[in-house]
Write a structure and sequence with these properties.
Blueprint: H1 10-17, H2 39-56, H3 61-77, H4 81-87, H5 90-113, H6 118-125, H7 127-139, H8 148-153, H9 167-199, H10 205-229, H11 232-239, H12 259-276, H13 278-286, H14 293-303, H15 330-333, H16 338-367, H17 382-386, H18 392-395
Helix pairs in contact: 1-9, 1-10, 2-3, 2-5, 3-5, 3-6, 4-7, 5-6, 5-7, 9-10, 9-11, 9-12, 10-16, 12-13, 12-14
Length: 397
């Protein structure tokens, strides 16, 4: 697969995960500055959380939000940030795009909280900020609001994180995002192992599947820290900033839009999902713009042998062709015995446990308290969305 990662192996992930949600400090140690947009990046990291706190405590929040928008656009107008965005390296551009969309998202969310109508909100966002946001989405194709990729994958969370809150809530916000990033590293390891098994001639099937199950169990351990240690009160302070865009028909950044979990699901049990949960595929295609584009388009390449547009459902999903089994590890497994088949079943069960833990965590922190689910549309069932990757028959073995 063309999408690679510098993320750690599962043992390192487990070690790094031990510190998240420890509630031992109310400040963030910024060990290495990542400020690709100079003054704009400095503003996002050092000033934006203070502006937000002032707006929340203001007697005239509408005026305070407009002052925030004015300050942001004055900074942007002071330099040629459009040219600067285009000149950045790929890795630095990712951080810069995160900075830009953290600003845009903040202005929209705070405008709604202050009661601004759509016209005033757009004026507050301002054309200079809107222009560089538009340019960032043209250079790296993505949804035109803060994305899961911006929030989790491109955010320099371990060295110089972008957060909206001050104090303990800001630390918890960092840990929430970092936990997702650590899970993504485990998913990448699982995906890499499955791709080696599928594509590499002579790959050691047992070794690949052992690494896959170890990686998925590590991801589940990280997710368990969310369930056991995250503070509901601190969660409620920062989660409001990552909701659906209040002025656009757009969903908020959500773990639902992890392209790596889609990739692992397809590789491990793609055909079974098609027969038992075809809605899983329909929703991935329907909501494809919300996923990290490089990875999800690679998955679509596996699934679309006719090379049609990734935004169009493939013929097999429309019942006009057979499922492309070569996208999965199933053809390779047919050459091995029952022991390898049992190892594959262990991987599927590990993925099943991860999905169930995700549901339990969502239930504890969002559904039961009545908080909105940012990655789910109003017409959708939360339970149906969260259970799309579960294969009950496999789970019961």
């Amino acid at each position: 697969m063309a999408v690679s990662s510098s993320f750690s192996v599962p043992d390192q992930t487990s070690h790094r995960a031990q510190g998240i949600f420890s509630h031992l400090t109310d400040s963030i140690d910024r060990r290495q500055r990542r400020r690709p947009l100079g003054t704009v990046s400095d503003f996002v990291v050092e000033q934006l959380p203070h502006y937000i706190a002032e707006i929340k405590g203001s007697e005239r929040p509408d005026g305070a939000v407009k002052a925030l928008g004015h300050s942001i656009n004055t900074i942007i107008a002071g330099a040629d940030y459009e040219a600067h965005l285009l000149d950045l390296s790929h890795s630095e551009f990712g951080v810069a795009k995160t900075d830009v969309h953290y600003l845009v998202n903040c202005v929209y969310q705070m405008s709604a909280a202050a009661g601004l109508d759509r016209v005033d909100a757009e004026l507050t966002v301002g054309e200079p900020l809107r222009r560089i946001a538009r340019l960032s989405c043209q250079r790296q194709r993505s949804i035109d609001v803060l994305s899961y990729e911006d929030m989790i994958l491109s955010n320099p969370l371990e060295s110089d994180p972008r957060v909206y809150c001050l104090g303990s809530a800001g630390v918890e916000e960092r840990d929430f995002c970092l936990g997702h990033q650590l899970i993504e590293s485990d998913l990448q390891a699982a995906m890499d192992a499955l791709l080696e098994l599928r594509d590499a001639v002579g790959a050691d099937a047992g070794q690949c599947l052992a690494l896959c199950v170890k990686s998925l169990e590590s991801a589940n351990d990280v997710l368990a820290r969310f369930y056991e240690h995250m503070s509901p009160d601190l969660f409620s302070e920062f989660r409001v900033f990552y909701g659906k865009n209040p002025y656009k028909d757009r969903l908020g950044p959500s773990g639902r839009f992890s392209a790596r979990i889609v990739a692992v699901s397809v590789l491990l049990m793609g055909e079974e999902l098609f027969h038992q949960k075809p809605q899983f595929y329909r929703d991935v295609y329907r909501l494809s713009e919300y996923y990290p584009q490089g990875c999800i388009h690679e998955v679509f390449r596996w699934l679309s042998p006719d090379n049609r547009s990734a935004r169009l459902q493939p013929s097999w999903l429309e019942g006009k062709a057979g499922f492309p089994k070569f996208a999965t590890i199933s053809p390779v497994l047919k050459r091995h015995g029952s022991e390898i088949g049992n190892m594959r079943a262990s991987c599927v069960c590990a993925l099943d446990r991860f999905t169930r833990m995700h549901f339990r965590t969502a239930l504890k922190y969002t559904i039961d308290p009545g908080r909105p689910i940012v990655g789910v549309e109003a017409a959708e069932s939360v339970e149906a969305v969260l259970s799309q990757r579960l294969l009950t028959a496999v789970h019961q073995k």
